[in-house]
């Protein structure tokens, strides 16, 4: 190995090593996020039983790639290592770090092939120092895996287009198939590849060539100048030769290869398409363990309009589909969810259907400003022809442009920049051309170094908590919550810390996520501040931000009287009341595997909730709700002898009759099954606040099972089919 090569490998290795170290630090800093437990459980079940079916709507986007996260957890358990919840999280996150390292390595290699060593190192630097990549490269989710899968498949496809061959086509097909096991977003590789080929064909025609130029070096576009030889056919313009009858045969001979070329080109187009399709089918069947493959559309009940329409076609509905059923049902559920929309917040604006500029604005304020400047510089260099890479521009630009356009105009689920994460590696490679512009010692080369350094400083300043990162264009993360919410800044990564560490260290009592105005020191997550706490958002400034994801407020009774006297207030439970609920974990479920429970944290917060639609735990989704239960689970057995509950959506006022539990029963867990607590079964309840005493039992779990409830209009719902809700549970020893 030459000295130059050793320096190159050493620099790339150092960047990857630093990336790995930062990810390990981030793993320690971030608690479990919203989706991690479900992804890990899905992977563990698939690894243990080869079962990937979607038991509930919460599994709509889970994919077999989560098996990778389950591998170290399962291996540790089989080796006899004690695997508690924190260790499961730690072990499960390690494979995602490995995938992040692989992504950085691929970015380096592609950028180096196009722009040389300096271009490769710049691309790798931008990738490994991107806070958004760092934020998702240590979580048990599919976002980073999807970015890697789509980038690797496109890179492999580019390599095959550069130098077609059976081996390279097989690699491209395998990469394309593997990408389909990450997230249904990878299915967009089909239109992306088609657009790339179309752009290449148009470029080739404009350049005056019959086929796309495959070279990656800037010199090769000069090759199309060779069309000078076509002047030669003009030489036989001699009348005497044209007069001979034998000569006209030549045009016919020339026409035959032209006509024969059409089937050849068709075969040339069908071959890669067939290879990619085969790669996807094989990968899906291997990844999903062939679970119920060849099931036709008539074999399940679609929930989305597109699948319902296809299932209504007489002949099509009975055709066996050569992919596993869990993959089809996942596509079906996601097709429903992406059009369902959700409440979106963007810089003071709310919308149930989202904003066309949401992802564009999110990229502009969550990508480092130095990186944005380098991408803009690279775009200028490409547009002016100063640094071009023939045959690669479309591969670098079509994926991010397509993804941004789709997410902006056809995707109504706007809950985080992470959905645009697959576009970022292409931008990092694209920006690598800035390093090939001028020698590093030149003023322009130094400007590139300054922009890269800006990215580095901005990234390191957010270490080790990268989820709430925002760039300097809006004043950093202290202003992020004014622009975006949800997984852009608070994905529940600090919830455990706030409740188990910060609250206990607080010199004064801390009210966490109150259901309404309350005097004292108040802590709310930034993902909930804007949509759920308008009284805080509109009238108070945070005293401090904790880890960039939680806001702390000091509120006095006088301030509440001035600003919020007309709003329903939260009722604190006295410290000496002996309530055991806050010491446990909220649990919930339903009679249907398709219905889950949301907002369980509100069951045990030492406050009786106000009239807030965000305060009650409820069955979800609401399209087909059913009977459900809500309760508390403790790590150690507790003696329980009395329960106070608000079995409905609201605690008082005329609205409290909506979604009020009519028939219910309290149950305790005896170690093997749920047992009714004597005297707690109620039929035809009319009270918004109920209380039950019973002979004390010692248990680790207790629940309120709601069997009938009023509907939204306040009238009796159909038995067994209703939205079950519970506002509050307080549990006492006696």
Summarize the structure.
By secondary structure, this protein is an alpha+beta fold. It has 21 helices and 17 strands. Helix 2 (36-49) crosses helix 3 and helix 8 (189-207) crosses helix 15 (393-409).
Descriptive overview:
By secondary structure, the protein is of the alpha+beta class. Helices cover 44% and strands 13% of the residues. It has helices at residues 3-29, 36-49, 66-78, 85-128, 131-136, 143-162, 166-179, 189-207, 239-243, 249-287, 305-311, 325-337, 358-366, 369-383, 393-409, 424-431, 443-461, 495-505, 526-532, 534-539, 557-563; strands spanning 344-346, 349-351, 510-512, 520-525, 544-546, 550-555, 571-572, 585-590, 596-598, 607-608, 617-620, 628-646, 661-669, 674-676, 690-709, 725-726, 728-732. The strands form five sheets. Strands 8, 12, 13, 14, 15 and 17 form a six-stranded antiparallel sheet that branches. The protein has a four-stranded mixed sheet with strand order 3-4-6-5. Strand 1 and strand 2 form a beta hairpin. The longest helix has 44 residues, at 85-128. It is globular. 43% of the residues are buried. Residues 209-260 have low confidence and may be disordered.
Q: Largest sheet, described in full?
A: 6 strands, antiparallel
Our estimate of the beta-strand percent is 5-15%
Mean pLDDT across the residues is: 88
Uncertain spans: 209-260
Annotation field: number of helices: 21
Radius of gyration over C-alpha positions, nearest whole angstrom = 30 Å
List how many beta strands DSSP finds.
17
Helical/strand content category: alpha+beta
Shape: globular
Please bin the fraction of helical residues: 40-55%
């Amino acid at each position: 190995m030459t000295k130059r090569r050793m320096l190159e490998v050493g620099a790339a290795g150092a960047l990857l090593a630093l990336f790995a170290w930062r990810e390990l630090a981030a793993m320690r800093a971030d608690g479990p996020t919203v989706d991690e437990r479900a992804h890990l459980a899905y992977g563990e079940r698939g690894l243990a039983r080869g079962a990937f079916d979607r038991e509930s709507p919460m599994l709509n986007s889970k994919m077999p790639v989560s098996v990778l996260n389950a591998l170290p957890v399962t291996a540790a358990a089989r080796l006899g290592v004690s695997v508690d919840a924190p260790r499961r999280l730690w072990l499960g996150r390690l494979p995602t770090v490995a995938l992040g390292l692989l992504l950085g390595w691929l970015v380096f290699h592609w950028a180096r092939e196009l722009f040389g060593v300096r271009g490769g190192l710049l691309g790798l630097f931008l990738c490994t120092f991107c806070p958004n990549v760092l934020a998702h490269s240590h979580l048990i989710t599919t976002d980073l895996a999807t970015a890697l899968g789509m980038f690797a498949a496109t890179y492999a496809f580019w390599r095959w287009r550069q130098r077609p061959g059976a081996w390279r086509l097989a690699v491209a097909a395998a990469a394309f198939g593997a990408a389909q096991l990450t997230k249904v977003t990878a299915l967009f590789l089909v239109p992306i590849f088609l657009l790339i080929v179309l752009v290449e064909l148009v470029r080739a025609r404009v350049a005056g060539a019959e086929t796309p130029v495959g070279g990656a070096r800037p010199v090769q576009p000069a090759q199309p100048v060779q069309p000078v030889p076509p002047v030669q056919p003009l030489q036989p313009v001699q009348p005497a030769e044209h007069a001979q009858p034998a000569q006209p045969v030549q045009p016919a001979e020339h026409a035959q290869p032209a006509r024969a070329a059409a089937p050849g080109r068709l075969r040339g187009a069908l071959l890669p398409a067939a290879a990619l399709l085969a790669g996807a089918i094989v990968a899906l069947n291997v990844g999903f363990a062939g679970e119920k493959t060849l099931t036709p559309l008539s074999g399940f009940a679609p929930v989305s309009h597109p699948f319902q329409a296809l299932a209504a076609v007489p002949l099509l509905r009975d055709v066996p589909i050569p992919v596993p059923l869990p993959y089809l049902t996942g596509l079906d559920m996601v097709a429903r969810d992406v059009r369902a929309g959700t409440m979106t917040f963007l810089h003071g604006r709310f919308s149930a259907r989202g904003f066309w500029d949401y992802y564009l604005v999110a990229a502009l304020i969550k990508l480092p400003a130095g990186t944005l400047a380098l991408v803009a510089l690279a775009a200028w260099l490409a547009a002016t022809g100063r640094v071009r890479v023939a045959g690669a521009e479309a591969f670098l630009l079509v994926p991010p442009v397509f993804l941004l356009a789709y997410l902006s105009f056809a995707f109504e689920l706007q809950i985080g920049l992470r959905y645009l994460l697959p576009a970022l590696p292409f931008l990092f490679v694209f920006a690598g051309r800035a390093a090939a512009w001028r020698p590093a010692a030149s003023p322009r080369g130094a400007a590139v170094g300054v922009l890269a350094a800006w990215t580095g400083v901005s990234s390191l300043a957010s270490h080790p908590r990268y989820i709430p990162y925002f760039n300097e264009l809006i004043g950093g993360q202290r202003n992020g919550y004014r622009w975006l919410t949800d997984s852009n800044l608070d994905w529940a990564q600090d919830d455990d810390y706030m409740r188990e560490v910060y609250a206990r260290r607080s010199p004064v009592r801390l009210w966490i996520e109150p259901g309404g105005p309350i005097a004292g020191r108040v802590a709310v997550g930034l993902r909930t501040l804007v949509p759920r706490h308008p009284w805080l958002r509109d009238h108070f400034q945070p005293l401090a931000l904790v880890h960039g994801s939680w806001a702390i407020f000091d509120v006095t009774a006088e301030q509440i009287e001035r600003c919020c006297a007309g709003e329903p207030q939260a009722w604190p439970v006295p410290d000496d009341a002996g309530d055991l609920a806050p010491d446990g974990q909220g649990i919930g479920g339903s009679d249907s595997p398709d219905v889950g429970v949301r907002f369980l944290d509100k069951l045990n917060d030492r406050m009786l909730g106000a009239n807030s639609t965000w305060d009650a735990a409820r069955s979800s989704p609401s399209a087909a709700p059913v009977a459900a239960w809500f309760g508390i689970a403790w790590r150690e057995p507790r003696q329980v002898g009395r329960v106070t509950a608000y079995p409905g959506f609201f605690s008082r006022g005329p609205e409290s009759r909506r979604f009020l539990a009519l028939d219910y029963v309290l149950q305790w867990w005896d170690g093997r099954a749920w047992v009714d607590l004597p005297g707690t079964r109620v039929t035809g309840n009319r009270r918004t606040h109920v209380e039950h005493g019973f002979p004390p039992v010692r248990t680790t779990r207790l629940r309120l099972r709601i069997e009938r409830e009023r509907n939204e209009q306040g009238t009796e719902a159909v038995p067994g089919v209703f939205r079950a809700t519970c506002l509050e549970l307080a549990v006492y020893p006696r």
